[in-house]
Amino acid sequence: MTIILALSILGVVSFYLQRRRRASWLSMVICGIILYGCFVVLIFGNGPIIRIYKRLLKHWNIGWRQASTLAREAELYEKDLPQYDFLAVGSSQTYALYTEFARKHEEVSVFNIAGMNILDIILYENAIERLSGGHILLMLSDFDLCRQPAVTGLRIAPRQPITTLMVLVPQLYKSGLMSFSELQDYVLAQLFPGYRYQYVSRGLIDKILRKNMAFPSTGAHDIGKADANDVMRKALRGLHVRYLKANLELVRNFLTWATSCGFKVSIIEGGV
Amino acid sequence: MLFNSLVFVWFLIVMLFLHYVLPRKWSRFALLAGSYVFYGWWDWRFLSLIIISTCIDFFVAHSIEAASTKKKEQLLLTCSVITNLGLLGFFKYFNFFVTSLGTLLNTVGIEVDMGTLNLVLPVGISFYTFQTMSYTIDVYRGSQKAEKNLITFAAFVTFFPQLVAGPIERAGHLLPQLKERQHVKREQIPTALWYILWGFFLKVFMADNLATIVESMYAHLESLTIVDVFVCHYAFAFQIFGDFAGYSYIAVGVAALFGIHLMHNFRFPYFVTNPSDFWKNWHISLSRWLRDYLYIPLGGNRGGGATVHRNLLITMLLGGLWHGAAWNFVLWGGYQGAVLILFRIWNLSRKRKTAIHVPWILKVILMFNVTCAGWLLFRSPDLESIVTMLGQMMNWSNILNWKSYYWLGMTLFFVSVPLALHSLQFIRKSDHAVPFSSALGKVYCCTIMVFLLITLGSWGTKSFIYFQF
Question: Which residue range(s) make up the domain with A2?
Answer without folding.
Answer: 1-44
